[in-house]
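2024-03-11 09:14:02 INFO queue: dequeued item SEC12-like protein 1-like, len=294
2024-03-11 09:14:02 INFO validating residues
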Amino acid sequence: ANYVLEAEEGDPVAIVVHPSGDDFMCSLSNGSCKLFELYGHEANMKLLAKELTPLQGIGSQSCITFSVDGSKFAAGGLDGHLRIMEWPSMRTILDEPKAHKSVRDMDFSLDSEFLASTSTDGSARIWKIEDGVPLTTLSRNSDEKIELCRFSKDGTKPFLFCAVQKGDKSLTAVWDMSTWNRIGHKRLLRKSASVMSVSHDGKYLSLGSKDGDICVVEVKKMQIHHYSKRLHLGTTISTLEFCPSERVVLTTSVEWGALVTKLNVPKDWKEWQIYLVLLGLFLVSAVAFYIFFE
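2024-03-11 09:14:37 INFO prediction written
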């Protein structure tokens, strides 16, 4: 399926897919957002474009995102204006014209309670969504710029991961969501990070660099399990997404287009394998019990 944008609509600036997978939002350089719905059969898919009145003429949006459960939508503008809305009703939850100098990145927490946002000036803020107010500003040193942010998704470790630029060093820092205190950092990339992503099950964190590298880290130990050098040779990786069902990632860049990379990470246990191990342990226990009492 394809859709041709009219000249007056401008070019796509940012794209985000709704968690349902049935539609996606696109912010355009003419200062509006357009919703695209997929319909039809797999062999004959079509795109239906919809205008959303609350998102018309709001200015160029550098970052747009949906919450994990798809019930909320957020848009951050080049002008620093931050909007959070219910989806699909589009009821306004937060409308802050001066949230940042210019929005760089943002992400919803797993439970949709918080939104983290970063600015081009290096600052980062946490927003309490239900109350529609800023909760705190993340602490940083004077020579640090917080550029990217992603919440943990495994449901057990309430952390916020941020890509921090400290001079010519790229760091990945971690904040504890219970206190919003910084608890540590590690250098994972050689060059500045351009994009960050967390796998759907929360096991892996991935970073793409401005010179085309990607690294994939196991969240539990913060150890690198996969590193691809110059995957997008000499160009910035613009998007990085994990496949929901397989250990592969999709990356895109202006020069090299879209690439799919199979990750060199430990294989996940299948459900039947777990049951087989449990059955084996049960049989061993039964045999041992029989021998002992005989």
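2024-03-11 09:14:37 INFO annotate: The first strand starts at residue 12 and ends at 17.
2024-03-11 09:14:38 INFO item closed
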